[in-house]
Design brief:
The chain has about 400 residues and is of the alpha+beta class. The chain is built from 16 helices and nine strands. It has a six-stranded mixed beta barrel with strand order 2-3-7-4-6-5, surrounded by five helices. α2 packs antiparallel against α15 and α4 crosses α5 (about 130-145). The longest helix has about 45 residues, at about 20-65.
């Protein structure tokens, strides 16, 4: 108890502002605020990085579909396979599709396109972006034509970026030039067909809004001369695609399955690398701030050499002196960490609930900052900061125990 009281007394004494040596106290204050600001910036930055990562993942999850089944050989997916999937995997949802490439043309403007022939009802059940576009189409039909919308063969739903680029509107015509060729008397000519625009989707990703076009299964079956109830593939919605894709591969080894994460592996690897690099760089702020803790404690040790020597001669142990300076440094550093965490929580609350920073909605799909701080990142920040602060306090505390009382009292 006496040891604890002595250590507590000395820590409180050394934390007071030193009027005779103000630079020591100023250095300690700078160390405190340096650690606080470093922790605050690191937490906010990680929340922003996680938020943008999750937002991109959500959008790519939707537009690339959780799992895509395509033929691994000559046999295409068909209606029988679709029924078998629905029987064996009742927890999954399926949307068959036919896919082809085309050029979309308006006047002299041409853009490349990926055209999907789909079942509108099935697609809207697994793709919320398409579902919203389809609901908008139904509302437009009811308002303008006074009738319920029923998909016709050569109707299309296009992305917002393509619609703005070509200045299209409801009931506009869009010419699509397909890669399928028709033989003529002297040569082969590409298949061309005008489609009627009946809807606009907005995924928030310009690349998809510019190149993806949805039409009916019947339209592409006719253009590609495919038999009815035969498809190029089947899009599969799963809440746990990494697990379900393994089961699907075991059940249907003659089919090829692609997960949404496999289609964007390089992109997510780059995001992960960027996040790690940012974490390391911002952690250096805390490391630099901790150097002030070392400087402050070393100056305190040098300034209190005579006092430490007297304590040692009066019966204080080296362990008590070591604990005093270790606790002193940890008090400065840990209080800085806690204040930084509180400041970060306040900033994240303000950013999440007030329009302090607005993003261009046409670029990011939302005008609010996406914020999401994971528990793993928060624990890594706090634990890493605690380790840095502890190590910064340990060296000066160890130096304080190496003071020779006889040498100090003889000279001073």
């Amino acid at each position: 108890m006496a040891q604890r009281n002595l250590v507590t007394y000395l820590v409180c004494r050394y934390l007071r502002f030193n009027k005779t040596q103000p630079f020591i106290s100023i250095t300690a204050i700078l160390a405190f605020w340096g650690v606080s600001i470093g922790v605050m910036v690191l937490i906010v930055a990680m929340a922003l990085m996680n938020g943008f990562d999750k937002e991109f993942e959500r959008k790519l999850f939707i537009m690339n579909y959780p799992i895509t089944m395509v033929s691994a050989g000559f046999d295409r997916p068909n209606i029988e396979l679709l029924k078998d999937l629905e029987t064996n995997f009742k927890h999954l949802q399926f949307s068959p599709f036919i896919q082809t490439q085309a050029l979309s043309k308006v006047g002299n403007s041409i853009e490349g396109a990926v055209v999907f022939g789909i079942d509108f009802e099935r697609e809207s059940a697994i793709n919320p972006v398409f579902k919203e576009a389809l609901l908008s189409t139904q509302r437009t039909f009811e308002e303008r034509l006074g009738e319920r919308y029923s998909p016709e063969t050569f109707q299309i739903i296009i992305g917002k970026t393509l619609q703005e680029q070509f200045h299209l509107h409801f009931d506009s015509n869009l010419l699509l030039i397909f890669t399928q060729f028709n033989p003529t008397a002297t040569s082969l000519t590409p298949t061309m067909k005008r489609f009627n625009v009946v809807g606009i989707f907005n995924s928030g990703l310009i690349a998809y809004d510019k190149s993806y076009i949805y039409t009916t299964l019947e339209a592409l079956q006719a253009i590609k001369a495919m038999s009815q109830n035969t498809y190029d593939g089947i899009h599969i919605y799963s809440k746990n695609p990494q697990k379900d894709i393994i089961t699907l591969k075991e059940k249907y080894p003659y089919m090829h399955f692609v997960g949404w994460w496999e289609q964007n592996g390089n992109f997510f690897a780059a995001l992960a690398l960027e996040k790690r690099a940012l974490f390391i760089v911002l952690m250096l702020i805390i490391l630099v701030a901790s150097l002030n803790i070392i400087s402050s404690l070393l100056m305190t040790v040098m300034n209190r050499r005579k006092e430490i020597a007297l304590l040692l001669t009066m019966g204080a142990s080296s362990e008590e002196i070591k604990k005093t300076f270790l606790y002193l440094g940890n008090t400065i550093g840990i209080s800085g960490i806690l204040v930084g965490a509180i400041l970060a929580a306040i900033i994240l609350f303000l950013l999440a609930n007030f329009p302090i920073i607005s993003l261009p909605a046409d670029v990011y799909g939302s005008d609010k900052l996406p914020l999401e701080l994971s528990l793993v990142d928060l624990m890594a920040i706090l634990i890493g900061s605690f380790i840095i602060v502890f190590l910064s306090s340990y060296y000066p505390a160890e130096k304080a125990t190496q003071i020779d009382p006889l040498q100090v009292l003889r000279n001073e």
